[in-house]
Amino acid sequence: MALYILRRLLAVIPVMLVVAVFVFLLIRLGPGDPAAQLAGDAATAEDIQRIRERLGLHLPIHVQFITWFGNILQGDLGMSIANNRPVSSLILARLEPTLMLTLTTIIFVVLVAVPLGAIAAWNHGRWIDRAVMAFSVLGFSIPVFVLAYILIYVFAMWLGVAPVQGFVSPTDSLYRFFAHIALPVLSLSTIYIALVARITRATVVETLGEDYIRTAYSKGVRDRDILLKHALRNSWVPVVTVIGISIAALIGGVVVTESVYNIPGLGRLTVDAVLASDYPVIQGLILVFSFTYVLINLVVDITYAALDPRIRY
Amino acid sequence: MNADRTPPHSILEIRDLTVRLPPGGDRTNAVENVSMHVNAGEIVCVVGESGSGKSVTAQTVIGLLPREQLTPTSGSVIFEGEDVLTLSRERMRGLRGKRISMIFQEPMTALNPVVRVGRQIAEVFRSHGLEPGRGGMPSISDLLESVRLPEPERLQNSYPHQLSGGQRQRIMIAMALALSPSLLLADEPTTALDVTTQARILKLIREMQDRYHNGVLFITHDFGVVAEIADRVVVMRDGQVVEQGPTDRILRNPQQDYTRMLISAVPSMVPAKRKRAPDAPVALRTENLAKTYGGGSWFRKGWEVKAAEAVNLELRRGQTLGIVGESGSGKSTVARCVVRLIDPTGGKVYLGDTEIGNVRLRELKPMRKRIQIIFQDPYRSLNPRRSIGKSLIEGPTNFGVPEREAWARAVQLLEIVGIDPDAHARFPHQFSGGQRQRICIARALAMEPDVLVADEAVSALDVSVQAQVLDLLTDIRDRFDLSVLFITHDLRVAAQVCDSVAVMHQGRVVEYEPVEQLFAAPTHPYTRELLAAAPGRHWNFQAFCEATETVAALDG
Amino acid sequence: MTTDVSFEAGARDERALSVWAATLRFLLRNRSVQIGGGLLVLMIAIALLAPLLWTVSPTRLDTAMRLRPPGPDAWMGTDPFGRDVYSRVIYGSRISLLVGLTVAMTAALVGTVLGILAGYIRWLDGILMRVMDGLMAIPAILLAIAMIAVLGAGIGSVIIAITVPEVPRVVRLVRSIVLSVREEPYVEAAVALGTPGHLVMVRHILPNTIAPLLVQGTYICAFAILIESILSFLGAGVPPTIPTWGNIMAEGRIYFQISPWNIFFPATFLALTILSVNVLGDGLRDTLDPRLQRSV
Amino acid sequence: MSITTRNWTAGLLAAVVAIPAANAAFVSSADAEEVVLRAVKHSALRVLDPIMTTAYMSRNHGYMIFDTLFALDENFEPQPQMVDTWEVSDDQLTWTFTLRDGLLFHDGELVTSDDVIASLRRWGERDAMGQELMRYTEEMNAVDDNTFEIVVSEPYGLMLESLGKPSSNVPFIMPQRLAETDSTEPIPEQIGSGPFVFVDEEFEPGAVAVYRKFEDYVPRDEEPSWMSGGKNVHVDRVEWVNIPDHGTALNSVISGEIDWMENPPWDLIAVAENAPNVVGRQLQPLGSQGMMRMNFLHPPLDDPKVRQAIMYAVEQESYMQALVGPPEYYEVCGAMFMCGTPLETDIGSAPLLEQDLDRARELLEESSYDGEPIVIMYPTDVITLSGYPPVTAQALEEAGFNVDLQATDWQTVVSRRASMDPPEEGGWHLFHTNWVGFDVANPIVSQGLVAGGREAAWFGWPDFPEFEELRRSFAAADGAEEQFAVAEQIQEQAYENVMYLPLGQYIEIAIFGDHLEGVLEGPAPIFWNIRKND
Question: How far is C54 from chain B, CA to nearest CA, in Å?
Answer without folding.
Answer: 46
